[in-house]
Amino acid sequence: MAAMWQQLHGVMGLWLLLAVGLALLSGVLRSARFKGWLGERLVRRWLAQGLDPQHYHALHDLTLRLPDDSTTQIDHVVVSVHGVFVLETKHLQGWIFGAERQQHWTQTFYRHRVRFQNPLRQNWRHLKALETLLDVPLAHLHSVVVLTGTAQFKTAMPAQVVQGAAVVPYVRSFNAQLLAPEAVQRILQQLDAQRLAPTRATHRAHVAQLRQRHARAEGASPASTPVPATVPATATATAPAAALRPPRPLADAVEATIPGRAEPVLHPEPPPTTPQAAAPCPRCAAPLVARSVSRDDGAWLHFWRCQRFPECRHMQPRTAQVLPLEE
To answer: CA 297, CA 145: separation in Å to the nearest integer?
Structure first.
């Protein structure tokens, strides 16, 4: 009898251990980190199987340091003579509601709704960072958002958003030659030299930095943002619509004509006008030119950079100067 109870307890313990293991596995599979990892792995496989490595050079999980010592993380970059493709991966399910110019999109899964940042705006900051760090014209950078899950758009899907393996024909649809082979090799060397090691420590440091920025932004917004006064009904009826529209962090999307393809590109608000640097580069005595880059938290970083970049990589911060209005 005692042996029977001992065997029964053993079986019950085994079932309990199996149930705990399944619960832990289910939690891992549903975690945002695992979904992001799975989406990036799928995109890696599609790019490797569908693009000729002699003409398309794919880099994955790039963490780059900006001039203000912050970092930006890019899922995938594909470099070819047809331009630099910057890929942002999103592993989503359910229904997606959103437009190209909206600041946030909405994901609906059964009765659960989640608002998240428009990945096109998120990827725009990646494009601006590469434009500054690589000294590549913005017209040579292509933004692509890849949806790897089972999500379906219930609104018109933006032209720069593709689903699944359709990312390969989308990249191959760009036929115009924008970069010389020498420029492609230079960009690859710059990315390899400037990227941080793709380790867990690098990822944790980047995530911690993002959380600190968002915490500072949320903590400062109530005190720094003035409360708008109530607009009377009569004034609302007569005031122009543009005057009552709240300010947006990015300007309206405009069509940027690229040789061989017309692609909508989001353009930011122009940075403040600044004077030329009074002193030359302290390293090589070349002139310093004004540059600006958008950080991951949406703020603009203004700095001076040597005109001989990338041969000379000297950078120094600058303060934006607001010029008085003309009389």
So the answer is: 19
**pLDDT of 24:** 62
CB 117 within 8 A of CB 102: no
Q: How far apart are CA 251 and CA 246, in angstroms?
A: 12
pLDDT over 70, % of the chain = 65
Of 34-38, 188-192, 217-221, 230-234, the one with minimum mean pLDDT is 230-234
* Percent of the chain that is helix, strand, coil (3-state, to 5): 40, 25, 35
CA atoms of 87 and 121, how far apart (whole Å): 12
CA 260 vs CA 81, 205, 325: distances in Å: 13, 40, 41
- The residue among 192 and 255 whose pLDDT is bigger is 192
Measured between alpha carbons, how far is 306 from 135 in angstroms, rounded to an integer?
11
Which of 178, 116, 174 is CA-nearest to residue 144? Answer: 174
* Cα–Cα distance measured from residue 146 to residue 35, given in angstroms and rounded to the nearest whole number: 13
pTM for the whole structure: 0.60
Dist CA 133 CA 195 (whole Å): 11
What value does the mean pLDDT take over residues 202-219? Answer: 70
CA distances in angstroms from 51 to 123, 144, 271, listed in the order given: 22, 15, 37
154 C-beta neighbours (distance < 10 Å), count: 13
The candidate with the shortest Cα–Cα distance to 164, out of 150, 180, 179, 178, is: 150
> For the residues of 24-73, what is the DSSP string, one character each?
HHHHHHHSHHHHHHHHHHHHHHHHHHHS-TTT-EEEEEEEEE-TTS-EEE
30-82 pLDDT, tens per residue?
A: 565 656 667 889 999 999 999 999 999 999 999 998 888 888 999 999 999 99
Q: What is the DSSP letter of 176?
A: S
Query: Whole-angstrom Cα distance, residue 226 to residue 228?
Result: 6
Taking the C-alpha atoms of residue 137 and residue 26, their distance in angstroms, rounded to an integer, is 45
DSSP single-letter state for residue 316: E
